[in-house]
Amino acid sequence: MDGKGGGISDEAAIVHRVRGGDSAAYAELVNRHAQVAQRMAVLLGAGADADDVVQESFVKAYRALGSFRTESAFRPWLLRIVANETRNLLRSKHRRARREELATLPDEVLDPATAALSSERRRELLDALKALPEQYRLVVTCRYLLELDEQETATVLGWPRGTVKSRLHRALQKLRTQLPDKEVQR
Fold first, then answer.
1. Cα 98 vs. chain centroid, distance in angstroms?
2. Dihedral sign from CA coordinates of 85, 108, 145, 30
3. Which of 117, 124, 106 is nearest to 41 (CA)?
4. In sequence order, what are the residues at sequence separation of 6 or more whose Cβ sits closer than 8 angstroms to the Cβ of residue 154?
5. Dist. CA 21–CA 168, nearest whole Å
6. How far apart are CA 130 and CA 98, in angstroms?
7. How confident is the model at residue 2 (pLDDT cuts 50, 70, 90)?
């Protein structure tokens, strides 16, 4: 199983149908993964442009479906495209003026466990996360906000697993120093 919405072999069958000319089958993949792709784009900073990033990501994924290895999970492959598209968007914008606006995370993106935190605590955590360098913010976002495992995070970010582990460790250390009186999970 790939963890979300069906097994790898199930998705491989859908991909096979799309490659065989059944373009309507692609809608099944879109329906399965649109929500997490949207969350990924927003959490990585696409802000109001998240819908456009996700749409462009699905178009690029469709065009590149011929190169997708069906023995792999579709979700991490797609999320890597979303991450790249989000980075492309951010690079194309005026970095300073837009960074604050794009980094704002709407409350509805947060999962129910995070929503249970007090708004003050949530704000403190989000401010500390936004203050992290990009490489640390990305790894924390993937692992904790999107709940990806190490391998999925490595695939999405295009990093070796060891880099994911070390950057996550450093990111959590930085968060602990920014939130010294608060508990930061490992």
1. 20
2. negative
3. 106
4. 160, 161, 163, 164
5. 41
6. 14
7. very low
Q: Of the candidates 91, 167, 166, 178, which has an alpha carbon nearest to the alpha carbon of residue 136?
A: 167
Which pLDDT score, from 0 to 100, does residue 5 have? Answer: 47
Q: Which two tokens stand for residue 44?
A: 């990585």
Task: Provide the whole-model pTM.
Answer: 0.63
Q: How far is CA 174 from CA 116, 179, 182, 184, in A?
A: 24, 9, 12, 10
Cβ-contact 103, 138 below 8 angstroms: no
Q: What is the mean pLDDT of residues 4-12?
A: 66
Residue 73, sorted as left (phi over 0), alpha (psi -120 to 50) or beta, turns out to be beta
120, 134 in Cβ contact below 8 A? no
24-37 residue pLDDT tens:
999 999 999 999 99
Instruction: State the maximum Cα–Cα separation within the chain, in Å, rounded to a whole number.
Output: 57
pLDDT per residue as tens digits for the range 78-109: 999 999 999 888 888 655 444 454 445 555 55
What pLDDT is attached to residue 76?
93
First to last CA, the chain: 26
| Burial of 64: CB neighbours in 10 Å, binned 0-12, 13-18, 19+ | exposed
Please tell me the distance from the alpha carbon of residue 47 to that of residue 183, in angstroms, as a whole number. 28
Secondary structure class of 108 (helix, strand, coil)? helix
